[in-house]
Amino acid sequence: MLRTIIIIGLALAFGLGSVSMQGQRIVKSKNGSFLLKNGTLVTVSNGTFVSDLLVEDGKIAAIGESLAAPEGTTVVDCRDQFVYPGFIDSGTQLGLREVGSVSLTSDHSEIGDFIPHMEALTAVNPNGVAIPVTRVNGITSAITKPSGGTFPGTAALINLHGYTPDQMFAGYKAVIMNFPSTGKRGWRDRRSEEDIKKDAEKAIKKLDETWSKIKLYTKIDSATMALNKSRDDYNPAMDAMLEVARGNRHLMVEVNKKSDIESAIKWITENKLNAILTGVKEGFRVADQIAAAGIPVIVGPVMDIPARESDRYDIAYANAGKMQKAGVKVALRTDSYENVRNLPYEAGFAATYGMGVDEALRAITLSPAEMFGVADQLGSLDVGKHANLFVSDGDPFETKTDILHLFIGGWKVPLESRHTLLYDEFLERDPIGQK
Amino acid sequence: MKILSILTTLLLVGSLTAQSLQGDVLIKNGTVITITDGIKENTDVLIKNGKIKSIGEGLSAGDQVKVIDADGMYVMPGIIDAHSHAGIDVVNEPTAPITAEVFVGDVINPYAVSLYRALAGGVTVSHAMHGSANAIGGQCETMKHHFGEEDPEAFKMQGAPRTIKFALGENPMRVHGEGNGIQPKSRMGIEQVFRKGFSEALEYQKAWKKYSSGGANVAPAYDLRKQALVDILNGDIIIHCHSYRADEILMLMNVLEDYGVNKICFQHVNEGFKVAPELAAFGAHASVFADWWAYKFEVYYSTAYNAAILTRNNVITSINSDSGELIRHLYHEAGKTQKYGDLTDNEALKLITLHPAIQLGIEDRVGSLEVGKDGDVAVFKNHPLSIYAVPQYTIVDGLVRFDINEDPADMRMDLNPDETIPAFHEIDAHDHHRCMEGAFESLFSHH
User: Fold this and answer.
1) Which of B303, B304, B422 sits opposite A308 (nearest CB)?
2) Is the bond preceding residue A301 a cis peptide, omega within 30 degrees?
3) What is the pLDDT of residue B431?
4) Do A271 and A390 share a domain, yes or no?
């Protein structure tokens, strides 16, 4: 009895102790009204000017000079500072992977070649350590996507704040497809050119077979619906393709090599699909064809080595700009999970190597928002849009620049992460101690 | 007679080659970032016979000397990468926990386009390292990026101290413990690999001393592996040790202290920030990534502020690439230390110039722009720490090895007549590190 009391006492003391410790250490996100005063607003949609911006009910409620602060509003002085729309990374595995080499911490890849019903959103860990690490560089939204075989699953656009995947969901999904490649899989791929070609032809044949089944399935589904009947079969993979086949949902087609891009364009056009090309490493070689087909692209990583030994050292830096100049709609991605924070630097390199700052900025804000059909909510500083935005002390593409405040859906999110916490703890380590 | 003339020709060719690796160039009117003596506006740098002859205003050289107009540009010392695998054909000899007898210098590939791509990022010197499969790997090679030369010898930086690769943690544990079922399978085992190796080297040295002083009639069997460890114990080889966790870093410092070794640069050293005071007290150096983390469990508790914390604790710190991709923008990687820890411009640039030079023992030759040092220079449009920086010229020993205005796209030297367009590689930027290459032929590699 006495022992039990002691144990309970200890547990209470320990528990209370940790609560008070947490009370000091954990900075929570804050919801409410915020008036950003006198910042330089880089709106992306409507130029750059000095103004106030009011965040209320999760939205950008007003933009204008000398806005009044409603009662209870927190005023943030942004004089000599810059306000940007939150950045959007158009291709990541954020939330799906925790520790790269530990496979049981990774949820980005499932078994099977035709599994479009695998939902990335299901496996997003809202508490993934990489998410706050990403936010500190001004990234507020990201496409998180499965990878693997020909149809590895369905990607989702998420906002980088929330306690559940549904809270994070930003209203857009796309089915991922890896177009059969005639490139080498890696430096260790020892297949002959002929074998690679054969493998690809086989894969395309299989793809065409799959696609005719999808078309048939879609017809049956439409016919059944027309009769006001419901189907009682269970075919989740096919069901996941219905909206794609009807052109209502994007197919994100990963394709990189020139000849494969040409094949993909042909295939997409023939099947009248609503598609986005992703990766697109050799897009610069067929930029006019992509532009003529009117297919948007998601490019990245920008900091990449050329895919061919014979290509100029900076071709990956320049690729996005070359496509954009040819009239292709371009968004950028890091294709990362742990270093999505480098998105502004990827954009910076694209800007430097031909794209220009304005277009590179657009490629990580308004262009992806338009591409994903969420430009009424995200991608620029406009009244009525979600308050996904940040305040910086300079050009966010520059490594010298710090992000000072960040808002997602109107929540002021602390710029704290494992990386900043370890810095705070170890910069001046105490005790230094002797061995 | 004929043999003699062939020999003479060979000698002549040899000396000509040696001469051709040093050039003259005058860089006019740049903003000169010296690293050791501040920033000098509108200043010229004159390189003669591969060495910096003078730094000053209004310098002139003979008509023969190539002149680079650096008006409006930034002139800095050639960037040095203390951890690279570019330009070598083989990375790992993963056959035993100790392979100190193998030399990276034996597998230099002068045709590797990766070396040209490094030059296009302002990198003039790289430390071509053995991989991290073994607790004690092979001896490494400090290379000058004389891309364009066909003789592998041209890439070896003459006079650079010997270096050797050590590795702690998951990689040697995976290769030998998990892979081969032999020690080391844990960090306990790794410690004992070092202690056993050094102790046997001491015995070997003792046996040779005994023989040399007439105390034994028969010489001990020569063992290059043990001899290399003796050379480490004698301070003739600098250790560069792949490491991540704080505990294993402390372990190796304890072992080295017991054997009287003090020349050590920890590589990657993601948890160096946790033991920065201990590293500083030991005099150990640190060569880190700007922001790589989470790719394996031993780098899960990392921080991008590592370089800043180490710098503030007076640990000689550099930023390396370990990647054929990153090596092309080390100036940008250095810039990240201004985001993560507010290093000054000069502190950040030291991470890719003077500090790696110190870590490789070549700071009397390279790493800053000073009269008498090697003519290794990188010229940038826009400040090298800006995201808008673009390398314009890269000069090695006074020879312009990269000139953005005369850069043909195709820099291959070993053209395969059957392959008019080289193969397209579906590979992403996150797979350009080669630390574990060759260790598991079929396994995806991790740094």
Assistant:
1) B422
2) yes
3) 59
4) no
Nearest to A121 by CA among A152, A97, A145: A145
In this structure, are residues B351 and B40 in contact, taking their beta carbons and an 8 Å threshold? no
d(CA B19, CA B13): 10
Range of the domain at A217: 87-378
Q: What is the mean pLDDT of chain B?
A: 93
Using a CB-CB cut-off of 8 Å, the residues of chain A touching B423 are 183-184, 193, 308
Is the CB of B309 less than 8 angstroms away from the CB of A102?
A: no
pLDDT at B435: 79
For residue B446, the chain A residues in CB contact (below 8 A) are 100-101
Are residues A101 and A51 both part of a single domain?
A: no
CB contact under 8 A, A312 and B117: no
Residue A74 within a domain: yes
pLDDT > 70? residue A200: yes
Q: Which residues, including other chains, have CB under 8 Å from residue A369's CB and lie 6 or more apart?
A: A88, A375, A377, A378, A379, A380
Bridge pairing between strands A297-299 and A330-332: parallel
Q: Tens of pLDDT along B200-227?
A: 999 999 999 999 999 999 999 999 999 9
Chain B residues in contact with A98 (beta carbon < 8 A): 294, 300
B208 min Cα distance to partner chain A (Å): 36
- Tell me, yes or no, whether A275 lies in a domain: yes
Contact criterion met (CB below 8 Å) for B436 and B94: no
Last residue of a domain, one of A340, A361, A378: A378
- The CATH number assigned to the domain holding A182 equals 3.20.20.140
Helix then strand then coil, % of chain A, to nearest 5:
35, 25, 40
Closest partner CB to B387 (pick from A256, A345, A426)? A345
Q: How many domains does chain A have?
A: 2
Q: Which residue has the tokens 């338009």?
A: A370
Flag if B387 and A310 touch (Cβ within 8 Å). no
Contact B61, B28 (CB under 8 A): no
d(CA B211, CA B219): 6
B427 touches A at CB < 8 Å: yes
Point out the residue among A336, A345, A351 whose CB comes nearest to the CB of B332: A345
List of chain B residues whose C-beta atoms are within 8 Å of the C-beta of residue A129: 294, 300
Which run of H or of E encompasses A22? helix A2-25
Residue B309 forms contact with A (CB below 8 Å): yes
| B127 contact A CB<8A | no
Mean of pLDDT values over A286-308: 97
Superfamily of domain B78-366+427-431 in the CATH hierarchy:
Metal-dependent hydrolases (3.20.20.140)
User: A138 and A194 share a domain?
Assistant: yes
B423 touches chain A (CB under 8 A): yes
- ipTM, two decimals, is 0.93
Q: B41 at the A interface (CB within 8 A)?
A: no
Nearest to B294 among A130, A137, A316 (CB): A130
The CATH number covering residue A69 comes to 2.30.40.10
Last residue of a domain, one of A360, A378, A396: A378
Residue A22 lies in a domain: no
Same domain, A249 and A339: yes
Taking an 8 Å cut-off on Cβ atoms, the answer to whether B424 and A426 are in contact is no
Tokens of A428: 């001046």
Chain B residue at shortest CA distance from A189:
B425
Per-residue pLDDT of A342-357, as tens digits, reads 999 999 999 999 999 9
**Which residues lie closer than 8 Å to A90 by C-beta, 6 or more apart?**
A142, A143, A278, A298, A300, A331, A332, A333, A364, A368, A371
